[in-house]
Design goal:
Length: about 45
């Protein structure tokens, strides 16, 4: 996932409820922790 910089991933994580398509895409990144992936996939806090 070279298209995901740390800065972009962090912005999407912080704004995930307003950036659902990007959050769903990032949730598919196997390099992320299970906790991040779950939060991104569900939009939970």
């Amino acid at each position: 996932f070279p298209e995901w910089t740390v800065a972009r991933a962090m912005r999407v994580m912080i704004e995930r409820k307003h950036r659902l398509p990007e959050a769903a895409e990032l949730a598919g990144c196997a390099a992320l922790s299970p906790g991040w992936r779950a939060k991104l996939a569900t939009g939970q806090s």
